[in-house]
């Protein structure tokens, strides 16, 4: 908002009055009214920006529901309750761990370039640079990373392992990476406060292709590698055996909910909406950039979905809605890094390549006998890395300077004439994220495995975790199928079916 000032000494000479005293009093009155209006406009701007920000946080949190539905549909029916419970606990455990430690490690400014050191338990909060809406938004991002990991290790992981890794990921591993890239003190941040940017550019990861999706995907990769594939995923000759999820309907529902939530994930990362890029009163401002970001997000996802549809038709010989949903999400993951700094036509290229990256990663996973029920490591890790590279190639000069102002001559996309420094910074971010997550989550999963806290027994896996760990199946098709009712004498209602054999002889 513009800054309003009013001075009695300035107004007094301009007022025609018989006495100096009356003129001064009139000027004081006008200034008081003008100050009241200015304060109300300032309050309104804060309210509008915080309302927009809170709504974006609610959208991102709604993605938890989408991911829960996606996970539920992608696993077999006998593990539905288990995967749903882990999604709930990702949010609950993540809420406490991010409140106690995570936010401070991520945004506890002033701090060094590696880790924050203020606001533990939101002490001395809010402050002029951040309000509670900012905390809520960042928490929603943190639990999204934990949810990605839960999908990779679904259907064979002990419940206690979920609690341990989720707390560690949301309270320490993820916040450190977000500090590097998103905090004004972070060593790789494109908005570093002292303007000492990595390669003169900083790494541009606007909404988290690397910070959120790569972190969750690489963590899931190590969890799934250490505990091994599900029983029956590969036969004795090493050939891949599809263990299909039990509900394509839930997968589609989850995909659409994630699509809806992504409009808070990407456009919401602007943090504010009332900001002019030129003179006041012009039609073009940050509100326009937010709309453009929603458009690039949409185009990348749609292109990836269609590319996957026809590509899988050629490769597999059929139209597969599950593959299309995963391709769509892969496009969203990829565009998340550069959504605010690329043209809409470039988003189409992003989505097209993302679809092939996902297909290629899935082929590699089969070759190396890697089992990920939701393709989370391939989708979020592979497409997230491509998204960072894409930003280094296609970020435009105009949009980079709008989103990250204050440094004229900042490098931008290689293919847009901005040189290779931004691309180099993006590659550094990819390598550092892989190294950091590998060095933290890898030993954690390895230790849990050594202590026999990671994988469930073969008997429990075959029977299904819902029955062995959660008291019964998520779905009861009839009383006869429910083991809890079956154990109570007199409550079993047998199904009556036609006797086809008797009918045949009677005829």
Automatic annotation (TrEMBL):
Subcellular location(s) per record = Cell membrane; Membrane
Q: Which SUPFAM superfamilies match?
A: Ammonium transporter
Put simply, this protein is called Ammonium transporter
Task: Output the Pfam families linked to this UniProt entry.
Answer: Ammonium_transp
Q: How does it sit in the membrane?
A: Multi-pass membrane protein
Alphabetic keyword roster: Ammonia transport, Membrane, Transmembrane, Transmembrane helix, Transport
User: Which GO BP terms, alphabetically?
Assistant: ammonium homeostasis
Cross-referenced PROSITE patterns: AMMONIUM_TRANSP
Could you give one GO CC term from the UniProt record? plasma membrane
- Similarity remark: Belongs to the ammonia transporter channel (TC 1.A.11.2) family.
Gene3D superfamilies the UniProt entry points to:
Ammonium transporter AmtB like domains (1.10.3430.10)
TM segment ranges: 51-75, 87-109, 129-148, 160-182, 202-226, 247-265, 285-309, 321-338, 344-365, 377-395, 423-448
**Natural source organism:** Erythroxylum novogranatense
Q: Mention one GO molecular function.
A: ammonium channel activity
**Residue ranges of the Ammonium transporter AmtB-like domain?**
53-475
Give the classification, highest ranks. Eukaryota, Viridiplantae, Streptophyta, Embryophyta, Tracheophyta
């Amino acid at each position: 908002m513009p800054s309003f000032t009013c001075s009695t000494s300035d107004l007094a000479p301009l007022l025609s009055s018989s006495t100096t005293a009356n003129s001064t009093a009139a000027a004081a009155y006008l200034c008081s009214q003008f100050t009241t209006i200015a304060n109300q406009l300032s309050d309104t701007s804060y309210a509008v920006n915080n309302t927009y920000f809170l709504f974006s946080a609610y959208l991102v949190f709604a993605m938890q529901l989408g991911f829960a539905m996606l996970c539920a549909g992608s696993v077999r029916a006998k593990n539905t309750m288990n995967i749903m419970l882990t999604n709930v606990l990702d949010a609950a455990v993540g809420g406490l761990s991010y409140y106690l430690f995570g936010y401070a490690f991520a945004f506890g400014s002033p701090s060094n370039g590696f880790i924050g050191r203020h606001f533990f338990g939101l002490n001395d909060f809010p402050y002029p640079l951040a309000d509670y809406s900012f905390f809520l938004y960042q928490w929603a991002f943190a639990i999204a990373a934990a949810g990605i990991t839960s999908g990779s290790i679904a259907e064979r992981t002990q419940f206690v392992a979920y609690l341990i890794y989720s707390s560690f990921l949301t309270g320490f591993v993820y916040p450190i990476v977000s500090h590097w890239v998103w905090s004004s003190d972070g060593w790789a941040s494109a908005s570093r406060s002292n303007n000492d940017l990595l390669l003169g550019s900083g790494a541009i990861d606007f909404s988290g292709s690397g910070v959120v999706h790569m972190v969750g995907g690489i963590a899931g990769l190590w969890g799934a590698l250490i505990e091994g594939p599900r029983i029956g995923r590969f036969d004795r000759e090493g050939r891949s055996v599809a263990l299909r999820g039990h509900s394509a309907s839930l997968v589609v529902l989850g995909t659409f909910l994630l699509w809806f939530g992504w409009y808070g994930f990407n456009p919401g990362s602007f943090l504010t909406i009332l900001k002019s890029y030129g003179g006041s009163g012009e039609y073009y401002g940050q509100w326009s950039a937010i709309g453009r970001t929603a458009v690039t997000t949409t185009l990348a996802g749609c292109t990836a979905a269609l590319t996957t549809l026809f590509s899988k038709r050629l490769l597999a010989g059929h139209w597969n809605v599950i593959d299309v949903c995963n391709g769509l999400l892969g496009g969203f993951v990829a565009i998340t890094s550069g959504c605010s700094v690329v043209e809409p036509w470039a988003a189409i290229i992003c989505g097209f390549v993302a679809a092939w990256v996902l297909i290629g990663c899935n082929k590699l996973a089969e070759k190396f006998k890697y089992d990920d029920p939701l393709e989370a490591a391939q989708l979020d890790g592979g497409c997230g890395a491509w998204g960072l590279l894409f930003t280094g190639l296609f970020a435009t000069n105009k949009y980079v300077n709008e989103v990250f102002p204050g440094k004229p001559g900042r490098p931008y996309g290689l293919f847009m004439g901005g040189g290779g420094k931004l691309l180099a910074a993006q590659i550094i971010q990819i390598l550092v994220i892989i190294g950091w997550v590998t060095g933290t989550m890898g030993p954690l999963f390895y230790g849990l495995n050594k202590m026999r806290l990671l994988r469930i027994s073969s008997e429990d896996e075959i029977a299904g975790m819902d029955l062995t760990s959660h008291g019964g199946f998520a779905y009861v098709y009839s009383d006869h199928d429910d083991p809890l009712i079956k154990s109570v004498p007199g409550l079993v209602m047998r199904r009556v079916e036609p006797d086809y054999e008797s009918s045949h002889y009677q005829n």
